[in-house]
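input
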Amino acid sequence: MSRILILAFLFLIIGCNAGPEIPKGILPPQEMQYIMWDMLQADGLASYSLDTVMRRPAKRMELYSTVLATHKMSQGTFRKNIQFYESHPDLLKIVLDSLQQMALRDTATIVVKPQKVTTDTVKRDTTNRRLDSVKSRILPPIEKLRALKKEKPV
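output
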């Protein structure tokens, strides 16, 4: 009977493992999230280019290589890490949730200032007003018009 209890207790301890052990050569989720964050930023930068002539896949690969060089990682090591996290969805969920939190914090710090709308950059000179184009014609004084009306045609 005691052997059965010991075996049951042993299976319980093995079954209640804290999670999958991360093998040597694989980054822990806390470090992987920063590399993934930088990769997402590089991808966004490559996608949001105003230059339509630029070759986007080439630019994207260049930015990815820059991110990996910044984190001192090769493409093979990165692929190995990604494959490990894809095969362990519980760890991948931790990384993706932390990325989502980082994105929420990043957007919360962005402060959008309202832009002033300028309608006219040059102030009008109110003392020297221009006449309307219809009113700008030079008309004879009213007295001359009245005098012309009083004259009789010959």
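quick obs: Residues 89-108 form the longest helix (20 residues).
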